[in-house]
């Protein structure tokens, strides 16, 4: 099985890449990125200063697409730059996967994603989801985790302060380890969807992570 991955250097994407490399069911991983990543026999990294250019250069047929792209307005450098990553590049990842013949896409979105939300972050995530649904994937899995737990290269002070609170919340509101989101993505990638579009919240992702066996 050949896989296309974007967001491989991020919190969820880095965990997912490790699982993909270790999986006997994955034969080849194509990564589109803005910079080169450590080499591995199963991995081809296509890097370009602009991720859109890297995606447009991918020519290897794939079966699955994983999109783990995500940033903040602060890290991106403003509202427009944030939208370009969390909407435009997510949508382009989907278009690229379809161009390469993929039948299934899995994307990391966020709790509260809603194209009509008054909150810009949630609205952006919701609009990206809607655009992917409009692409009419045979199978589309949307992961909507709550706060992600894990070691980031750059600490986000808002997450550091609020993490203890989110760890105590019930069900789909509870924070989830990025490694568990990655395991949940693998579980859903290797499972047949019950419908064309499947949405998994934090509680469901935690259950899926426990069900994934390497």
TrEMBL record:
Superkingdom per UniProt: Bacteria
Protein name: Putative NAD(P)-binding protein
Domain NAD(P)-binding: 7-185
Name of one Pfam family that matches: NAD_binding_10
InterPro entries hit by this protein: NAD(P)-bd_dom, NAD(P)-bd_dom_sf
Gene3D superfamilies assigned: NAD(P)-binding Rossmann-like Domain
């Amino acid at each position: 099985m050949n896989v296309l991955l974007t967001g491989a250097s991020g919190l969820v994407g880095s965990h997912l890449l490790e699982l993909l490399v270790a999986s006997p069911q994955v034969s080849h991983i194509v990564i589109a990125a803005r910079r080169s990543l450590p080499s591995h026999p199963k991995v081809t990294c296509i890097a370009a200063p602009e991720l859109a250019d890297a995606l447009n250069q991918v020519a290897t047929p794939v079966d699955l697409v994983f999109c783990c792209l995500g940033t903040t307005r602060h890290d991106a450098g403003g509202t427009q730059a944030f939208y370009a990553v969390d909407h435009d590049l997510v949508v382009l990842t989907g278009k690229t996967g379809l161009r390469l013949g993929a039948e299934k896409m899995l994307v990391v979105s966020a709790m509260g994603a809603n194209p009509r939300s008054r909150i810009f972050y949630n609205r952006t995530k919701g609009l990206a989801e809607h655009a992917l649904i409009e692409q009419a994937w045979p199978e589309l899995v949307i992961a909507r985790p709550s706060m992600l737990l894990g070691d980031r290269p750059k600490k986000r002070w808002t997450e550091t302060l609020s993490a203890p609170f989110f760890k105590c919340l019930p069900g789909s509101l509870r924070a989830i380890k990025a490694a568990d989101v990655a395991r949940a993505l693998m579980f859903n990638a290797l499972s047949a969807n019950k419908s064309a579009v499947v949405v998994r919240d934090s509680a469901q992702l935690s259950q899926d992570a426990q069900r994934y066996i390497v």
